[in-house]
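Please check the following for our workbook:

***
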Amino acid sequence: MYVVCEEHLSRAIDEFVEVYEQSPDLYELDKVSFTDWSSPHTCDFCEDPPKYLVV
């Protein structure tokens, strides 16, 4: 699972495919919510605010 900004979305997808050998599901963080999880405040690859969840 990756939480990333728009700039790092393709990198997260590439890494996900390499590890899991399948395409990930993509979600825009401002359009989804989970009861037991809140998104981090920064991208997994930089300090920018995240926009996407890659799972």
Notes: The longest strand covers residues 2-4. Residues 9-20 form the longest helix (12 residues).
